[in-house]
Amino acid sequence: MIIIGAGPAGLAAALYAGRFKLNTLIFEKMSPGGQILLSPSIENYPGFPEGVSTFELIDKFKKQIEDLGLIVQDKEVLEIVPTGPTYLVKTSAGDFKTKTVIISTGAQSKKLGVKGEDKYTGKGVSYCGTCDGPLFKNKDIVVVGGGDRAVEDAIFLTTYAKTVYLLHRRSEFRAAQILVDKMKKDTKIKPVLNSVLDEIVGVDKVDSVRIKNLLTQESTVLSCQGVFIFVGIAPQTDFIKNFLEIDESGFVVTDLAMNTSKKGIFACGDCIRKSLYQVVSACSDGATAADSAHKYLLRQ
Fold first, then answer.
1. Distance separating alpha carbons of residues 229 and 83, to the nearest angstrom
2. Largest Cα span, the chain
3. Per-residue pLDDT of the chain (300 residues; tens, 9 = 90+)
4. If you compute the radius of gyration of the chain from its CA atoms, what whole number of angstroms results?
5. How many Cβ atoms sit within 10 Å of the Cβ of residue 253?
6. Residue 99 burial class via C-beta count within 10 angstroms: exposed 0-12, middle 13-18, buried 19 and up
7. In this structure, are residues 42 and 54 in contact, taking their beta carbons and an 8 Å threshold?
8. Do 193 and 109 touch, CB atoms closer than 8 A?
9. Cβ atoms of 109 and 127 closer than 8 Å
10. Euclidean distance between CA atoms 277 and 266, whole angstroms
């Protein structure tokens, strides 16, 4: 088995593969852990009522698979090529033959590309309200976006924040009307329409944002301690876009057992289309993919 990607889904798949005693290779082009490492801590992972450092959690995942004799190799997968009953996985450091592949390459939150965004990521800039909301108790925050995810998280963030400014470039939100109605009833949420984020400002962390009104072109500075950006996510699936069935947004199409459109190829985690993008659901996906791959190999 070859597992592509060593975020929570890939590491969970590796754990199950190791326990199944499968000959397993794990390839990761960046650091094990994936996008979750952008959040300093997780407060909703089962078994850690006080929360847990993301680095600590990923280190525990890694130790579990290392105890089974598996290591994460620093290799970027470039292509998967069918070769009869097997697959050839081409990487930045050579080619490898395998009977089955688990794709767990994750996704990246789409960025606005504004000044200060990269500098303050993890220092006030976040792409996950569920992950980081508790870090902003009684703080003023800005949420950017107008779809379901932005409005849902704005509502969720009122549990912690003092004020939530919901910034949207259009005059009306694109989210489901039932969400918009609920948002409008929440006195903690202050919609800021027809406006875009121009700059994120701070010293060691976020102190304010610069906003431009698209109708008047007027620029204003808004004091805040956090910026949550919800303008979509981009799955890391370019290397398989002509190989597997993917949807219009680039997510791999799977069934409930994590089967893809090719026999022997499975996918899990944030690179597949699903309803919840969290560490706990990624781990579940990874376990399911490894179990399905194991059953597939037993039938070969």
1. 42
2. 66
3. 999 999 999 999 999 999 999 999 999 998 899 878 866 778 789 999 988 888 999 999 999 999 999 999 999 999 999 998 999 999 999 999 999 999 999 998 889 999 999 999 999 999 888 888 999 999 999 999 998 889 989 999 999 999 999 999 999 999 889 999 999 999 999 999 999 999 999 999 999 999 999 999 999 999 999 999 999 889 999 999 999 999 999 999 999 999 999 999 999 999 999 988 889 999 999 999 999 999 999 999
4. 21
5. 14
6. middle
7. yes
8. no
9. yes
10. 18
Q: Which two tokens stand for residue 138?
A: 């009684």
Give the H/E segment covering residue 18. helix 8-19
> What is the rounded end-to-end Cα distance, in angstroms, of the chain?
13
Distance CA 189, CA 151 (A): 10
Structure tokens at 218: 């007027």
Rounded Cα distance, 41 and 93, in Å: 33
What kind and span of H or E run contains 157? helix 148-157
CB count in 10 Å sphere of residue 6 = 30
Q: Measure the CA–CA gap between 281 and 170, rounded to whole angstroms.
A: 33
Contact residues for 99 (Cβ-Cβ < 8 A; gap 6+)? 1, 85, 86, 87, 264, 297, 300
Task: Give the C-alpha separation, 25 to 9, whole Å.
Answer: 15
A 10 A CB-CB count for 234 gives 14
